[in-house]
Request: fold
Amino acid sequence: MNFFVPDYILSINPYSPGKPLEELEREYGISDPIKLASNENPLGPSPMAVEAIKCSLDKLNRYPDGSGHDLINKISEKLKIKPDNIVLGNGSDEIIGMLTRALLKRGDEVVLPWPSFLMYDIMVRSVGAVPVYVSLKSLSIDLSNIQSRITQRTRMVFLCNPNNPTGTIFSKKDFESFLESIPEVIVVVDEAYIEFVQDKYCARGVDFLETGKGVVTLRTFSKAYGLAGIRVGFGVMSEEIAGVLNRIRPPFNVNSLAQVGAMAALEDEAFLNKTLNLVHEELGFLCNSLDKLGIKYFPTQANFFLIDVKKNADEVFESMLREGVIVRSMTSYGYPEYIRINVGLHDENVRFIKAIDKVIS
Reply:
């Protein structure tokens, strides 16, 4: 079959997700593997979200609310913003895709920190726009260098705060200075891990909604709220940008179970606090344990962090699989000797420490 595929589509390297537990069990015959590769919530989903979903199962014959009215109003109430500033997505990934499709055309430039979340590059290339990469500085997003790379062809900038995969942040003060120094472009701030941040000076995109600077903030229920499996996120933006995105948003893009689950999760403050307490406490355990082993790691403001294994990360990944522990090699992010892990339950973290000691000793 002959069909035309644009060169800019063929240039895309497909996103490689973390290996699922079921695949590890099949391939290696391991009965009790642990996964620390995808920055998921080790406690599982919000119990209130699970109960709300169970109570909605008998309505699966009905289409979901295409406007997401109740969920949007719940988010509006929590963030103290207008409902017209919110666009729902099938995960925040879908919002990224809508932004690139609606606001970019072929040949437009988009400035991206590197390394960062790989879906920015994929979505930008998928519409024929041109990614302009700006290297991190000491594992942190270099706002000054990003500002210097903005040209008349630049239409959009992506920033991840905390950055994935490094866990570093930029401050509110530095972000304010950055916005004042740049021309009129869309600045997308991906805050998938913002709930885990402990630094009180961290920038938060929602605070810049009314500045007229074209700031779009992305949030997700996949991480702190433990709802990665039902795919629900949202973007906060000006009414003008929201109106444009709603022109191309699929009418039922967020399913009914995701909507009721997300609404319940927003109410479940006890679960959110339990999650944050676990992550922060276990980060301390992991860091102290790695210190004792003499293994270098990097500080983080997220629920994951980088480890310098000082050898081929892909080989370490494979060796860890044989120990029943799934980690993430950072080779595809340009760090061939780094792995990334997320915080697990305490017993899982103990298993990881024993495995990494065995593998890289």
